[in-house]
Amino acid sequence: VVDVLPREKALRLMLDWKTSNRNYENELGMSVTEPQLHTAIRFILEQSGIVIEEHKRLPWCKGTTANEDFETDAKQRRPKASAEENWNRLLTFYEATAATRQRFDGKSERTPVNVVVKIDSTAPLHGHVYAVIGAIHASFEEWSLDCGLFHLKSQIVYYLHAATSVLGLKAYSSQYMSEFIDCSDCVYEVQRNDGLAIDDLPSPYSHLVRNFSVDHPFSLWKSVAELLQPHLVHTLAGSTSKVARLLTVLGVGLGTGRLALLTDVHRLLGRNWERRLRLRPDQVDKVAEIMFSKSRTPAQKSVALITEFGFTRWTIEQLPPSIGLLLGSIIMGQHTSTELFQFKSPQTVTDAGTDGEIREAQEQFLNATWTRYLAQAFGRAFFTFRTVLPNPAEALYVPELCLSARIYPSNLTFDLTLTEPLRHLREWGEFYNGVAAGLSVVGSDVAHVDHEWLTLCHTSDKISPPTAAGLLYAFGLNGHLPNFNTFHVHEVLASLDKFPSIALLLGMAMSKIGTADRQPCV
């Protein structure tokens, strides 16, 4: 919002937000998600002269006036609710319960939601209300690009629908109703506190507002659909820089005449395209060289733009599945979808680097595989939890960890250089592998195991010391360690090895939790 306002108005808005904004949080409901977002949106709209009164779809409670008298106990900070308020609360709960029951019965009838919206032309940002609405709408559409932020759209859609409805922006309110059908139930009553007529509003056509279109609100999904057409005709007016950057990557990667010339860029992004993309001065020439390069393929251009725009792996992973698959098909354009998802046969990639670069790439791949492989113990612990009955004649089976790789096609064994961090990673991985195996044994309330079986499992020469320590810890979690011989406990602790000591002490504590047994375990 600050970016689309004049400098003096932006400074005034930030100053009011920091110094004189109301304490909105006291009026929010108890279980509200994203309270800061609701507070910020309401503050911005009130600064623009749009005050939304009590709204059943918004989490605001009715504010109390100073003239209301309440009965308060000596130790009660919050005023007591009157009998009328308690009765209204019961009626609201009953109506909500009845509406929920009807919805599940398939006989629901949509009831109108009456909302009072007050307009104040003396508000400091009332003359820039369309710029403010356009900025909030741009953020609303940008959140569609992030699966982690998509839920925020449902938090502010009623604010946007109310504001655009009273301002007469039918294209915007219709777009919100098409995505959130509950907006169609809202009926707005406009009131003026400044003595002007209800329809006396600043005209959006009186002066052009940057990045705002009255009749054609920006829609992410429409823009993506139009990019897939052979000829690029739509503009990205009303979008944020993040959306514009991603759609530029898609437009360049799709090729076939899209963004091939500077006129195409002007038609899509405007003449100030570098400003729309928020490029630094040193980035303008680089981005232009990438987009208009004759020696690169569309896939190579897309990869170069992704790097230049600073898109990370996390950003790409959070994209909606449809856009993520489209971007993946562009980047990996030299492969078919069948080849990309064929995991049964190895995919060979020709390395053009030096031996040192190849060795470094192999170590990075094996290091990532290590982390994923060692983390499988946690999932296996949940999957096999207390599913094994112990055999007194055999030690508990513990799956082996294979942390070596075999290079194709030479079949040479490849191991990582064990640095100090990797050594700790391997030891703790083996420890949790033992914990996962030990947790597969049923609890002490199902089967009784003796000291001999515990010693047989712990002293097996087929497992490493960290794995044996993990078994001890798991046996303690399942309640079997009280059967461990006290002399053997002392022998394990006297070895001064950190893994057995930690496992035995914590496991014994878990086995004896709540028993009030004062006898020391050593």
Protein topology:
Layout: H1 7-19, H2 35-47, E1 50-52, H3 83-105, E2 113-119, H4 129-142, H5 152-166, H6 170-179, E3 186-192, H7 220-227, H8 241-254, H9 262-269, H10 273-276, H11 281-291, H12 298-309, H13 313-317, H14 321-331, H15 337-340, H16 355-383, E4 405-407, E5 412-414, H17 420-438, H18 451-458, H19 465-477, H20 486-494, H21 498-511
Parallel strand pairs: 2-3
Antiparallel strand pairs: 1-2, 4-5
Question: How would you characterize this protein structure?
Answer:
- With 522 residues, the protein is mainly α.
- It has 3 domains: 2-62 and 93-192, no CATH class; 220-340, no CATH class; 358-511, no CATH class.
- The chain has 21 helices and 5 strands.
- The chain has helices at residues 7-19, 35-47, 83-105, 129-142, 152-166, 170-179, 220-227, 241-254, 262-269, 273-276, 281-291, 298-309, 313-317, 321-331, 337-340, 355-383, 420-438, 451-458, 465-477, 486-494, 498-511; strands at 50-52, 113-119, 186-192, 405-407, 412-414.
- A 3-stranded mixed β-sheet has the order 1-2-3. Strands 4-5 form a two-stranded antiparallel ribbon.
- Helix 7 packs parallel to helix 8.
- Mean pLDDT is 80; it is low at 64-77 and 334-350.
